[in-house]
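Notes from hallway chat w/ T.B., transcribed later so I don't forget. T.B. wanted the structure written out for a chain they're using in a teaching module, and asked if we could keep both sequence and structure tokens in one place. Agreed to drop them here.
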Amino acid sequence: MGRLLALSLLGIALALLGERFLALRNRLKASREVESVDLPNCHLIKGIEAGAEDIDILPNGLAFFSVGLKCPSLHSFAPDKPGGILMMDLNEENPRALELRISRGFNLALFNPHGISTFIDSDDTVYLFVVNHPEFKNTVEIFKFEEEENSLLHLKTIKHELLPSVNDIIAVGPEHFYATNDHYFSDPFLKYLETYLNLHWTNVVYYSPNEVKVVAEGFDSANGINISPDKKYIYVADILAHEIHVLEKQPNMNLTQLKVLKLDTLVDNLSIDPSSGDILVGCHPNGQKLFVYDPKNPPSSEVLRIQNILSEKPTVTTVYANNGSVLQGSSVASVYDKKLLIGTLYHRALYCEL
């Protein structure tokens, strides 16, 4: 009798595990393939060989690239090389990506940059916020951009218990930001278990020197974050739920859910087209290829444009798509003056003239 009961319980456990596995494959879009959508005037950016996970462009056309991200679950083409911040002037006829010098005292050897965001203060000071994972821990670094020297002056390192697994960030003041946690836990095994069990425990945190608090929660895996041009709404990408959440910003900096846009792809970082207010999304059509790297069957790339997201029926169009033959694992797309930049988690970056 005892053996029959044990076998019955084992069968139930295996069935539940099988259901979870199938559910995870569905969340990863493991069977999806993408048809190419090409752009005519594109070339790979020299000097970016191991990922440009996030890109942010200033109103004057200076673009910042977060390069060289390394994560325990991701492939890397340069596992022993620290990350960095590159800059490209999109006003130049043939712009080049140049690495910015970082001030002494900052540990460059452990620099592992992830999401980035810029903030321009009332005195025109430019601050660059960088999610950093030194030794796979979680910090937010604040730099002052010194344009004449092409350098970054490190001002502050932020650590907090409410920032256990930071992915992306949107700056709303010189020391103020919203950040996404893509996991509830910081321990690698618990992160995997959390994802496998689909716990929906990830969140958005507001940070200021005077207050740190969770302002939105219940996401499968909160990822990219950005703010509307009128500063009224925060957009959050839930990568494994294939959703973009529109959240209304309250006077106390809390966020209230307004709507959710469902998509058929894994949505990563979000950028805003300054000329139209459209949202550009770097996407992963097939997440399994992204996490289980096979050079013979590499991860594909996809860029979506979302128009009128506040309307009842937003318009979603595919700007670019590639099966991995040119660009693998697109994570971000940013536009400036008919120029499009597409970055990736661990591969190359693309410059296109629209």
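Follow-up for T.B.: Residues 32-353 form a domain with the Neuraminidase fold (CATH 2.120.10.30). Might be a good example for the class.
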